[in-house]
Automatic annotation (TrEMBL):
Pfam families: DUF4915. This is TIGR03032 family protein. Coiled coil: none annotated. Residues 23-96, 153-408 form the Conserved hypothetical protein CHP03032 domain.
């Protein structure tokens, strides 16, 4: 039993085991790519890395990680109440491959000595342990719970100790936390950098928004059928595709204009919409997600049917690229290869469940690779990464280029205290 369980929360221990087709490690190494993807259910941002012989799936803990985008200079992640930017800083590779100096010996982070008390040392109780003791102070524990807590504390200390050791010697790129913007719980979904900065799907307020340090967010666009700007998730606006740096297409679960009404509908009426004209291009879709503009077409997931489709805005024709045995959600590309996220069909509070529930006795979660160059009606599946444990949900995917074995330093990592990036000295200019 862990602390969240002691506090009355239902927390399932995660099993991150996975299997993958044998061609994936060499493919990623040869292309010099890796992939990142999010699972809000597992509370993890995951990096799939390769040394050419095997995959290494690295997990970073975040509260409700959702929208994800990778660009030349970094990775941006949307979480429960924050948008976090990780800057690519490969000059730090030498530093992160060395042990981290203990805080007691780190001149950049001296400990404060309280009046009349000795200086804290390595053997003293950590700040984290003090916080834990404070949480548990008012909870009556059985002997069994106390024993389990001792085990959990040992695991916690080991986890902290592991963060002090060098990162994997195979690491070839470093992404370190550089900036955070607090949005509040806007139920952030897709995010992407454009001409005006970062664009985000704000599902709570049924709008597309940009970010400004003076506000939680700046609302910029709403579907024509949404009448008010309120945090009521009326139509479940979720997906967004940018074209030439501007939002061009979005997906919604419905056309409702009432609080959370999309959960209660008795038919599938999801849409693909044109942002510029604020018109519906396709409707009757089953829980659509992840529109992406690529090669002059709009690719999107008709998720409830396990389909990946593309819409041609010139011919106005829709083509089914492939059907997969899972809830399709999350798309990114590298050349002719399309990466598609798959999730298991889950129990939810929507009135009408996904049609996939009737199609398959079993659905899968993971990432599937599709070759778009195939000329057959059914595009070729190149390979897959499939979770065999209880990671059931994948939300978004991002391809990381020019790196087959990246490392990410999260905001709470102890390396954040003394891994610096700065410009040259900028002298004050006198008038």
């Amino acid at each position: 039993m862990n602390i969240k369980q002691l506090a009355g929360e239902d927390v399932t221990e995660m099993d991150f085991n996975c299997e993958y087709t044998s061609n994936i490690p060499s493919l990623f190494k040869q292309l010099n790519i890796s992939i990142a993807f999010t699972s809000y259910q597992a509370g993890r941002l995951m990096l799939v890395r390769s040394d050419g012989n095997e995959l290494d799936v690295n997990y970073k803990s975040f509260l409700r990680p959702m929208g994800l985008t990778a660009y030349e200079g970094g990775i941006t992640l949307g979480t429960y109440t924050q948008v976090i930017n990780f800057q690519r800083e490969d000059d730090m590779l030498v530093q992160i491959k060395q042990p981290l100096t203990p805080i007691e010996d780190d001149i950049t982070a001296p400990r404060i000595k309280q009046h009349g008390k000795k200086q804290l040392t390595k053997s003293d109780i950590s700040e984290e342990e003090i916080k834990i003791e404070q949480v548990l102070a008012g909870i009556n524990l059985s002997e069994t719970q106390k024993a389990q807590l001792d085990i959990n504390m040992l695991e916690f200390k080991q986890e902290q100790a592991n963060k002090m050791i060098p990162v994997d010697y195979r690491t070839d790129a470093c992404f370190i936390t550089r900036a955070t913007h607090y949005t509040g719980m806007i139920n952030i979904h897709d995010i992407q950098w454009g001409e005006e900065g970062l664009w985000a799907v704000n599902s709570s307020f049924s709008c597309l928004c940009t970010l400004d340090p003076d506000y939680s967010f700046v609302p910029r666009w709403q579907p024509y059928f949404i009448s008010e700007l309120k945090p009521e998730d009326r139509c479940h606006l979720n997906g967004m595709a940018l074209k030439n740096g501007k939002p061009a297409y979005v997906t919604t679960f419905s056309k409702y204009d009432s609080p959370a009404m999309w959960r209660k509908g008795n038919k599938f009426d999801g849409t693909l919409m044109d942002v510029e004209t604020n018109t519906i291009l396709l409707d009757g879709l089953a829980m659509p997600h992840s529109p992406r503009w690529y090669n002059n077409k709009v690719y999107f997931c008709n998720s409830g049917h396990g389909l990946v489709c593309c819409y041609d805005p010139i011919t106005k024709q829709t083509e089914t690229i492939t059907q997969l045995q899972g809830f399709t959600r999350g798309i990114d590309f590298f050349g002719p290869i399309m990466m598609v996220g798959l999730s298991k069909v889950r129990a939810s509070d929507v009135t009408k469940p996904a049609p996939l529930k009737e199609l398959y006795d079993e659905t899968f979660s993971g990432v599937w690779l599709i070759n778009l160059d195939e000329t057959d009606n059914e595009k070729q599946i190149i390979g897959f990464i499939k979770f065999t444990g209880n990671v059931d949900q994948v939300y978004d995917i991002a391809v990381i280029t020019d790196s087959h074995f990246p490392e990410l330093i999260d905001p709470n990592h102890p390396r954040m205290r003394n891994h610096f990036s700065h410009s040259e000295l900028q002298p004050i200019q006198n008038e």
